[in-house]
Amino acid sequence: MVRNRVYNEYNWSSFEKLLLWNYPVASPYGDDFWNLDLRLSHWLTSSWRLGFEALHLEHGSQNLYGPYTMPWLTDPNITVATGYIEPFPYGIVQSTNLFDVSVICQPRPDFYGKLKLYYSQSHNYSYVPGLNKGQFSFLFTIYYDFTKNLLFN
């Protein structure tokens, strides 16, 4: 869970964001999100592995790339007595559920094949209220290591 304003800083003369090449430091989702990621895998034999992943992600629209605001200073209804509470996630919330099944075959240390099947369902896609999007995709990988070691005495 990463709350809004985690990577934002206001130094009274300019607005700074803790970025590295325009991406937030430490999290690929930026700020203002929470996620739950469950992964299970099991080697069926010494060569075959089966894996499963389920991910739930909720991400607010008012995040790192939005303007920095200070509602606790500009809203006259917010006082020390009333306190300030910010909704979490902030703004329009995009929620995504992703399911993934993978099969890996590695009969030798220098060769393996992998098949991954994904399905994701997003609600409020691109932070548009009521816009839902489902997507199915797959990835097929074959890997062979051509490296040969040469030893000289």
Describe this structure in words.
The protein has 153 residues and is mostly beta strands. Helix content is 3%, strand content 50%. The protein has one domain. The protein has one helix at residues 71-74, and strands at residues 8-10, 15-17, 19-20, 23-24, 33-43, 48-60, 93-108, 111-123, 132-144.
Low-confidence stretches: none
Helix/strand/pairing class, anyone? mainly beta
Q: In total, how many domains does the architecture comprise?
A: 1
The coarse silhouette is: elongated
Q: Count up the helices.
A: 1
Count the beta strands: 9
Instruction: Please describe the biggest sheet, giving its number of strands, its sense, and whether it closes into a barrel.
Output: 5 strands, antiparallel
Spatial order of strands in the largest sheet: 5-6-7-8-9
Question: What percent strand?
Answer: over 45%
Mean pLDDT: 85
Oligomer designation:
single chain
What is the CA–CA distance across the termini?
A: 55 Å
Order of helices and strands: EEEEEEHEEE
Range of helix content: under 10%
Q: Please tell me how large the radius of gyration is.
A: 23 Å
